């Protein structure tokens, strides 16, 4: 890369294109690094506060990446005729432009989830994912095959082929050196891409998740709850949960799980597993939305409406907020009392007629359909009524306090 191009003026057309190409390459590299950090579960749990800043950095770099495309488009009609006899270069141009435009449009939508409906946001996330996992491997391959090192290898190969006559023998290789080098570059790209793509693909393959759960320790709750209601969705839930945590996933059994209702209540309440299962449950059909863009639709949750639990405990007149604590010992969130008393806020134990799995927040989790999922506390063990506002885990790190989903 010629860094001097960034500081020179009055460049000729070819060098202007080269400068735009270099600018785009740098921005795409930064977007790839920050994007991969955002989807990394290890980074999320180890550097949660930093992750929020990485998210904003990723958004700003994405917005800046519009500029090279914006400056290139007026030059497109002049550039294209120069590639008339270079088919590979034309294909590369069309592919790169398509990927960039798709990433930019979907990225802008994902940057402002409050401005669009969950359906639009969910589709934008899927499109952004696909474009990313096509774009990154292609850019890696493109960078290898267009590097000066690779060009020198091809040049040396061409010189050898010109100087040495080809003798057809059975011992001759089936491919020439130039072809072999391109296959090798493709192989290296494939190896790198498999590692990068693994986690994303795994989220869409339930069988992989089942194997993972089998190999890890699961919750051991006895007895298993029997559904008190039928599954409300005719065709079952639509979409796939993506499992995010900020700590190691906790494991529960009858011995270490309980649910308490404390704080500004008339009667403090404490439930062990059997006592919780003895409570009368209701079922509701609702959608589940994550602030990162994905959604799961038509989910049947079965549990106890939070309003009923709070009414049973007796709400003190001074109570204004409700704090929820996770059994991981770290994660907390809160709702205003008015929000918490909504009819669809539920302390759920079953999903689609089955015990909520450990990775999805079981044995018991909060469900807040009108709020983004970071309000739906996993592994719920304590509910506390307060007279002051509590700042939850992700709100403390920059997320919106109300987390309302735009319908």
Automatic annotation (TrEMBL):
Going by the entry's taxonomy, the superkingdom of the source organism is recorded as Bacteria
**Where does the Oxidoreductase molybdopterin-binding domain start and stop, copy by copy?**
248-394
**How is the protein disposed in the membrane?**
Multi-pass membrane protein
Q: SUPFAM superfamilies given for it?
A: Oxidoreductase molybdopterin-binding domain (SSF56524), Transmembrane di-heme cytochromes (SSF81342)
State its location(s): Cell membrane
**Per UniProt, which keywords does this protein have?**
Cell membrane, Membrane, Transmembrane, Transmembrane helix
Query: Which Gene Ontology molecular function entries are recorded, alphabetically?
Result: electron transfer activity
- Membrane-spanning regions, if any? 54-73, 93-112, 124-141, 179-201
Q: Which GO terms describe its cellular component?
A: plasma membrane
Can the keyword Transcription regulation be found in this entry's annotation?
A: no
Q: Which residues form the Cytochrome b561 bacterial/Ni-hydrogenase domain?
A: 17-142
One short Pfam family name for this protein?
Oxidored_molyb
What is the protein's major site of localization? membrane
GO biological process, any: respiratory electron transport chain
Name the chain's protein.
Oxidoreductase molybdopterin binding domain-containing protein
Q: Which organism is it from?
A: Gracilibacillus kekensis
């Amino acid at each position: 890369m010629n860094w001097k191009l960034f500081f020179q003026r009055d460049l000729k057309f070819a060098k202007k294109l080269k400068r735009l190409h270099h600018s785009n390459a740098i921005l795409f590299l930064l977007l790839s690094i920050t994007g991969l950090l955002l989807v990394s579960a290890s980074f999320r749990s180890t550097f949660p506060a930093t992750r929020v800043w990485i998210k904003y950095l990723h958004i700003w770099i994405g917005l800046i990446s519009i500029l090279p495309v914006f400056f290139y488009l007026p030059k497109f009609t002049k550039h294209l005729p120069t590639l008339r006899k270079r088919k590979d270069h034309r294909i590369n141009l069309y592919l790169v432009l398509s990927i960039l435009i798709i990433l930019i449009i979907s990225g802008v939508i994902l940057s402002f989830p409050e401005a669009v409906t969950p359906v639009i946001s969910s589709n934008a996330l899927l499109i952004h994912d696909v474009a990313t996992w096509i774009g990154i491997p292609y850019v890696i391959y493109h960078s290898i095959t267009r590097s000066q090192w690779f060009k020198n290898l091809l040049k040396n190969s061409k010189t050898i082929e010109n100087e040495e006559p080809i003798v057809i023998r059975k011992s001759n290789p089936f491919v020439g050196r130039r072809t072999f080098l391109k296959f090798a570059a493709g192989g290296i790209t494939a190896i790198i891409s498999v590692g990068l793509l693994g986690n994303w693909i795994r989220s869409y393959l339930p069988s992989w998740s089942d194997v993972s759960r089998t190999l890890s320790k699961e919750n051991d709750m006895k007895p298993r709850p029997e559904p008190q209601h039928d599954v409300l969705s005719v065709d079952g839930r639509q979409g796939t949960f993506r499992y995010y945590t900020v700590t190691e996933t906790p494991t529960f059994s009858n011995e270490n799980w309980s649910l308490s209702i404390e704080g500004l209540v008339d009667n403090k309440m404490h439930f062990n597993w059997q006592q919780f299962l003895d409570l009368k449950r209701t079922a509701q059909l609702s959608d589940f939305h994550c602030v990162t863009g994905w959604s799961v639709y038509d989910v049947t949750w079965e549990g106890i409406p939070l309003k009923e639990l709070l009414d049973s405990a007796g709400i003190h007149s001074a109570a204004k907020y409700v704090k929820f604590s996770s059994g991981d010992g770290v994660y907390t969130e809160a709702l205003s009392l008015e929000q918490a008393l909504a009819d669809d806020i539920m302390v759920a134990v079953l999903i689609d007629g089955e015990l909520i799995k450990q990775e999805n927040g079981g044995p018991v989790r909060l469900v807040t359909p009108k709020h983004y999922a970071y309000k739906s506390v996993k592994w719920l063990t304590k509910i506390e009524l307060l007279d002051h506002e509590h700042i939850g885990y992700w709100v403390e790190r920059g997320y919106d306090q109300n987390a309302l989903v735009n319908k």
